[in-house]
Specification:
It comes from Boseongicola aestuarii. The chain is an alpha/beta fold. The chain is built from nine helices and 15 strands. The chain folds into two domains: 134 residues, serine acetyltransferase, domain 1, CATH 1.10.3130; 118 residues, Hexapeptide repeat proteins (UDP N-Acetylglucosamine Acyltransferase, domain 1, 3 Solenoid). The N and C termini lie far apart (69 Å).
Length: 271
């Protein structure tokens, strides 16, 4: 009986580059070999590496890494879009953050990336009706990373959270694709009503450090919110708002502010 042919491995340039980065890092600094092998090189895919990394970061005496890893493995196996979002988030950080020099770095070291991937698993649990586990992951992400994202919030792909300290995203918030935000951003409510009470952020929006967007308002795609602003009213697409309370101060300055990360109010270079 002829030996059955092996199915060709699906191409995965993001994972292949991560593994190449990992091998190069071990050659340069052998002392991190144990971390790199256990977190990356021991695994056959990004999804399995993420399951391991999230489990190791969030485990505690109350929940073992083995149980958390099984939860994450199930999520990635049953929801392939989680892995797709994880890849898009990695590429977003690599392309937009000048402090990121390899695709390996966010996976190993960047708490913003790790927190968002853990949130994505919690959101999957929430959608499955497993809300106590989702709340547990939210609580551990807040304790470990200082990032508090409600598991019911809906977040698109290609999210970059730079530094990621003190991020708060509420229950009914919606964040579009290819959004960039810096530390201490709040997407919050304005009262105690139990309904749709949090912001809706369009695609390609750039939110500066310390900005607060409050209430069930829409922030149009490809707009910019200046650092330290308090946004209480709707923001049209492709505008820049600044101040307390925030007002429109000009155009967004470029087609994709979240990609260029340009926060100068007089526009992007060349405008």
């Amino acid at each position: 009986m002829a030996e059955q042919q092996r199915k060709p491995r699906k191409l995965d340039p993001v994972w292949d580059q991560i593994c190449e980065d990992a091998r190069a890092a071990v050659m340069k600094e052998p002392l991190i070999g144990g971390l790199v092998h256990s977190s990356i090189l021991h695994h056959p895919s990004l999804e399995r590496a993420l399951s391991y990394r999230v489990a190791m970061k969030l485990s505690s005496d109350e929940m073992s890494p083995q149980i958390l890893r099984e939860i994450a493995d199930e999520a990635y196996a049953r929801s392939p879009e989680l892995g797709e979002a994880g890849r898009a988030d990695l590429v977003a950080i690599f392309e937009r953050d000048p402090a990121c020099h390899s695709l390996m770095q966010p996976l190993l070291y960047f708490k913003g990336y790790q927190a968002v991937q853990a949130y994505r698993i919690g959101h999957w649990l929430w959608q499955q009706g497993r809300r106590d586990l989702a709340y547990l992951i939210q609580a551990r992400v807040s304790e470990v990373f200082g990032v508090d994202i409600h598991p019911a919030a809906r977040i698109g792909k290609g999210l970059m959270i730079d530094h990621a300290h003190s991020i708060v995203i509420g229950e009914t918030a919606v964040v579009g694709d290819n959004v960039s935000m810096l530390h201490s951003v709040t997407l919050g409510g304005t009262g105690k009503e139990d309904d749709d009470r949090h912001p809706k952020i369009g695609n390609g929006v750039l939110i500066g450090a310390g900005a607060h967007v409050l209430g069930n308002i829409r922030v149009g795609s490809c707009s910019r919110i200046a650092a330290g602003s308090v946004v209480l009213e709707e923001v049209p697409p492709c505008k820049t708002v600044a101040g307390v309370p925030a007002k429109i101060v000009g155009e967004a300055g470029c087609d994709q502010p979240a990609l260029t990360m340009d926060q100068i109010l007089n526009g992007c270079p060349g405008q």
